[in-house]
Amino acid sequence: MRKSFAIELEKMMEDGNTFLLTGDVGFSVFERIRERFKKQYINMGLAEQNMLGVASGMALTGKNVFVYSIIPFIVFRPFEQLRNDICFQNVPVRLVGVGVGYSYSDAGFTHHVIEDYGILNGLPNLTILSPADPLEVSEQMRQIPKIKGPIYMRLSRSGEQILHTNHKNLKIGKALEISSGDDILFLTTGTILGKAIKVAELLEKDGYSVSILDYHTIKPFDEQTLLNSSANKRILVTFEEHLINTGLYSMVAQTLMTNQIYVRVLKFGITEPYTDLSGSRDYMLSKYGFSDEEIYKKIKKVLEE
Amino acid sequence: MQKLQEIANEIRVDLVKLHNRTRTSHIGSEFSAIDIMVELYYNVMNITPENFSSNDRDYFILSKGHAAPALYEILYRRGFFGREMLDKYGEDGSLLAEHPARGIPGIDVSTGSLGHGLSIASGIAYSLKLSKMKGKVYVLLSDGECQEGSTLEAANFAGRVNLDNLVAIIDNNGLQAYDRTSDIQPINSVIAKFVSSGWSYKIVDGHDFEQMGREFALVPFVTDKPSLLVANTIKGKGIREMENRIEWHYKSPNDTELHEFIKQLGGRI
Q: Which of B47, B52, B120 to mutate to test the interface with A (most CBs of A within 10 A)?
């Protein structure tokens, strides 16, 4: 994902007006950009509050500014700069953060990102992008120039697979249908889509047909596609590598409730915010959220009730 | 042109009335900063209602956003908006809050939380330099807000990228919200940090227009360096009962004080 981001950004920087500010990260990702665009790339050092403030000032005077770091350091540390200087003033700063969920699983709690969009959903004017695979990153990057306000794009760390073949239909702001079926509706955001697809395959073998909606855009939340797709489904299932409370599940539940649609919703996400153990991404997910086997079993159980 | 001293005095009279009417805070902070802002808007900066929508001009950021009413008084007098809009300050539905927001004619940057202004000013100054624009960026900081780590992050950045079009003015009134600034972080410590980050600096009397005018004309003080002007000021300057008193960070003049203060300023009700 980082590579796809860097490739698209490099193309964009050819305009001479696009800038990349980093918080002293990006080794093995930005070498070409550093070399090619010496005046448009700047390592802002370990000073993220200033990085966001400077980005705001540059964007206020017409520059197209990307800000890149590991998510906690551009979202949690300088939150007030993001709120006041970027979102409230509605300036087109593009924050790109790496490390969704347990991407940095063994780095420990400080590097885990299981509450970012829950927090950021409260910020005015901000578009939140949560791509599922490298091709979604590329597609979103190509559409970003059309968005006038601030953007936050959340990336996984490395090794992401291409998960589907429907990228040409991706439109920021609209949930993307990955597969369509009659019995069950899966709603996912981010790279966890890969797990949803696997579970859907298992369920298909058992004779159930599954729709999958990929919420590559978290905010603005596409309510309409959810409402259209949830009609006549036996159950809905949400998947996210994020706290369930304040997460995709919360947005789905709220939308259904507001529109008086009463349907069973199963939720898979992180339930325990404070992680005390270390391990692989899958281990952390199963320990603090859900395991692959658990998803299939739980859904099956509900379907057979 | 009317003398700057007279203009500043007239604004002080108006602010006494405004705070009496609206019972809002921070008049002391406005009175320490008003002479600096009058000097900038009337004698130094190239910012007018006509050129405001272009980038080919100077920029001003009131990082100590709590002195906003003083800035509103100036923007009104410089023709950015009418008397009617100014008089709505403190009323329901007014665009003018106790801290300034982008969207008000003449305001580039929303402030109110301390420690944000110098970074944004640096971003603007950097951007102007990249675009080969001649404008300068003036940012007015409180002495207290130099305690914010982000202010020092910004000072480091501005020095590193040689923002010789950036001018930071510290309103060194020596009082912050609940203590003497010197008891928390003395101004010499602040100056040392800026200087070691690559800034040049001067110290002036922030109520002496002639002195300020002389120094602003010399910006950048040193080639390739951002300029820091430490303006020594008095919180509540101009009113005996208010000068150097911490409570005037919060209080507003009651009706007796209204008459007394305006008399001291030589104004009329």
A: B120
